[in-house]
Every structure is written in C-alpha cells, then in structure tokens.
Amino acid sequence: MNSNALSLSARRIGAMALRHFYLLRSSWPRLLEIVYWPAVQMTMWGFLQLGVSKQPGALAVAASTFLAAFLLWDILFRGQLGFSMSFLEEMWSRNLPNLMISPLRPHEFVLALILMGTVRMAIGLVPVTILAIVFFGFNFWSLGIALAAFFANLLFTSWAVGMFCSGLVLRNGLGAEGLTWSLMFILLPLTCVYYPVATLPGWLQPIAWALPPTAVFEGMRALVLEHTFRSDLMLWSLALNAVWLSVAAIAFTALLNSARRVGSLIQVGE
C-alpha cells in the first residue's frame, strides 16, 4: 500500500474543523439546539430521581444512578450526533463532491469529523453538568478518574456508530438521513443504561455484553452504588471498541468506494 495514502495533514484536518467551528460560531440557533435538548432531558431525569429517591427501599437506591446514567448516555448519543451532524452539514450544503476531489483524504475527513463531533458534544455537556449541580446537587465530575475511562469508551463507540451512519448516507443519499438520528437508539435498551444487565432475558445478555457501552453503564452503577471502580469492565469495553472502530472504518471505506462507483457522491439529494 502506498504510504502516502495513510499520511496525515494537520493543516487539512484543522481547516475542515475550523470551517465547522465558524459555522457553529456564526449561528446561535445551532448552538442553542446543542444545549437545549440535553438540558430538557436532564431536568426531567433530575426531577424523576428526586421523586423516586423519596420512596423507601431499593427503588430509592436505584434512582440514585438516573442522572449519572443520563449524562453518560448523552455523551454517547451527542458524540455520535455531533459527528453525523458535521457530516450532514456537508451533504446539505452540497459541498461533499468538492471535498472528494480536493487533496483532503477520507481518513483526514473522518478525523476532522471526530474533532468537531467532540467539540459539539462538549458544548452540550458542560452547561448541562453545571445545571445538574445547581438544581439537583449532582456533581458529575465527582466521578473522578473513572469518568475519563467512561468518557473515552463512550466516545469511541459514538465515533464507530457515526462513521457507519455517515457511510450509509454516502452510499444511499439523504434518504438515509433518518438513520443518523435513530440508529443509536437501538443500543438504548440493549446497553442497559438505566438498569442492570441481569434485568434482560438470558438470551439477550450475551448480546448486551458484546456492546461496549454496556460495560460502561455497569461500571457506573458499581461506582455510584458500591464505590468500586471496575477496571475489568473498562478494559473489556476498550477491547470491544477496538473491534467496533475497525469494523466501522472498513464499512465506511467500503461504502465510500461503492458510492464512488455508482456516482452517488455527485447525486447528494434524496
């Protein structure tokens, strides 16, 4: 393989990221949308946690994980959505064909999307965590060093799903746009965001454990309820993410090559 094919240009990656940063900075509705939905959902889960925590017994204990679970889920969902939204901006503006004939390489394009997806996620997450402290007394950052492991593993999964969704839109056009909003929600019941894996039927549990976020949410519950950091779960999630990212990169490349063969890069409509 030509080594130039895998070389990176920080200037090209930075230029792509800067384009999307300027796009965000110049549009307050875009910034508001990034913060608005997480804030609404955090408020709902916060009040639910307050209400249920007043009940006696195990239900109150379980409720103590609701806000942490929501905020971790939001990292996963917003990380993927931030990646996909940056990609869709290029589709909506019909700029993708121009990028594909420019010196920008596909892996540089993906890295720029990863960078801007992380920026978008941070813009939504930081204000919401501050609101959680002010209104509900829940300090998400108090999870400490474990938070870094949770954060990294969830971001890796979000990038894998974002790459796959973007590849599907590349190949099938904007008719597949809805998948970028909905595909992640397939993982919501299977990754056991708000309940232990043991809650699932026996035949579903192996499927759940094959999903990297499952180990993160199980690790979060162990940390909040038992004050124990499960490094074994974090390593399992990291290993799964290595597989997921590899498969997503292969799928994205295959879908991009297919789009080039059939000419769908030029026909970026529905």
Written description of the protein model:
The protein contains twelve helices and no strands. By secondary structure, the protein is mostly helical. The chain has one domain (3-262). Helix 1 crosses helix 6 (106-136). The mean pLDDT is 87.
Question: Compute the gyration radius: what is it?
Answer: 20 Å
Low-confidence stretches: none
Mean pLDDT: 87
What is the helix content?
A: over 70%
Note the beta-strand portion.
under 5%
Shape summary? globular
Write the topology of this structure.
Blueprint: H1 10-25, H2 28-53, H3 58-63, H4 66-92, H5 96-100, H6 106-136, H7 145-172, H8 178-182, H9 187-190, H10 205-209, H11 212-226, H12 231-262
Helix pairs in contact: 1-6, 2-4, 2-6, 4-6, 4-7, 4-11, 7-11, 7-12, 11-12
Task: For the structure shown, list the relevant keywords.
270 residues, mainly alpha, 12 helices, single chain, 0% strand
Short synopsis of the structure:
The chain is mostly helical and 270 residues long. It has one domain (3-262).
